Automatic annotation (TrEMBL):
Gene Ontology terms: cellular component: cytoplasm
Record has Ribonucleoprotein as a keyword: no
Chain positions recorded as ATP binding sites: R258, R259, E260, V274, H275, W276, F277, E345, L346, T347, S348
Organism per entry: Antricoccus suffuscus
Stretches assigned to the Aminoacyl-transfer RNA synthetases class-II family profile domain: 169-405
Quaternary structure annotation from Swiss-Prot or TrEMBL: Homodimer. The tRNA molecule binds across the dimer.
NCBIfam families documented for this protein: serS
Site (Important for serine binding): T380
Gene symbol of the encoding locus: serS
Residues binding L-serine: T227, S228, E229, R258, E281, N378, T380
Keywords, in A-Z order: Aminoacyl-tRNA synthetase, ATP-binding, Coiled coil, Cytoplasm, Ligase, Nucleotide-binding, Protein biosynthesis
Function text: Catalyzes the attachment of serine to tRNA(Ser). Is also able to aminoacylate tRNA(Sec) with serine, to form the misacylated tRNA L-seryl-tRNA(Sec), which will be further converted into selenocysteinyl-tRNA(Sec).
Record's protein name: Serine--tRNA ligase
Broad class of where this protein is predominantly found: cytoplasm
Amino acid sequence: MIDLRFVRENLDAVRSSQEARGADPSSADALFAADERRRGVVSEFEALRAAQKTMGQQVKKASKEERPALLESAKSLAAQVKDAEGAVTEAESELREAQGAVANIVLDGVPPGPEENFVTIETVGEVPQLDFEPKDHDELGADLGVFDIPRGAKVSGARFYFLTGIGARLEMALMNMAMTQAMASGFTPIIAPALVRPEAMEGTGFLGAHAEEVYHLERDDLYLVGTSEVALAGFHSGEIVDLSGGPLRYAGFSSCFRREAGSYGKDTKGVFRVHWFDKVEMFCYTTPDQAEAEHQRLLDWEKQFLTALELPFRVIDVAAGDLGSSAARKYDCEAWFPSQGRYRELTSASNCTTYQARRLNVRYRGEDGKPATAATLNGTLCAITRTIACLLDAHQQKDGSVHIPAALQPFLGGLEVIEPVGKP
């Protein structure tokens, strides 16, 4: 939720931010007008309430002769107060809707425009030159007994799967490797719920443009999360957190669910784009002045993890039109898939500044002791099935086996190579 004071004082900047995202800049003007209207009707309501209170005192002190006229006036004033209260409720609803239409303010330096306007910040590792025709991870996964997609579809439908044998072991190994790194970096591990209330989903910005991606259980009015970011953002909702010792950092593991609306026919093979997957997500609460530095740290931790997995990747500065409503800036790490001959997204790190915390009412005490809105950030450390897909693709060998990176081997009991099923 955008800061209304910022809108009042920097309307042109809000318009420019919306325009950079490819959104209608007039939504900034609509928000400004809705804020003005709400403040006006609140002022009128408070004036009428004050007059009503004064009238009440007058009625108490009035003589018998004066009282009938005063009571009649009080009755008329009460009706005006009721109407004014209704106007406040209506204006607050309109303001909330207008706020939902305005995304977070894009930070300076973010590439403007649509998705393809991203900027490559750096490339890490060398793209391998294979002397054989690489298989895609879908074929490798079946040959190696990593996953069973036909039976997943039989049981649950398209874009579902079973992780089997070494696939199940890879899931647990990657989770433990990610959590081990996160804890070494000062994160508190958390197993987060995959079902959340509407206020958590709305507070993190997932019921706006992304609403079609979300599974909703209407009978219980609960949502299946697409990332544990949602639950972790709500973890401290309505609280004043202690940031005197530095940022609060959580590494959340949860199952994640996405409808993948609009992706018909896209990435249908394998487990790269699925309806359900598990993920280790980093989530941080910090002060607004430290948010950019914390954002860089999140990116560095993601780079550390991908480097340990021996994956060549690039880091991109995501264009404004592809940020999502909550993020003011986002970095993606895209790893190389030899079978596709291109980089694909594995991790993201987003600086949401105060946008989420304002709606969720997460505050901290500044040096003056007064409560102020905190900043929140999130970063994917390991989206597990997508990472498995990349490991198979990037570490495949000519004989059909797959090399296990040295850093992952201890979490697999020292296993160095995944052999095709049935191979001695």
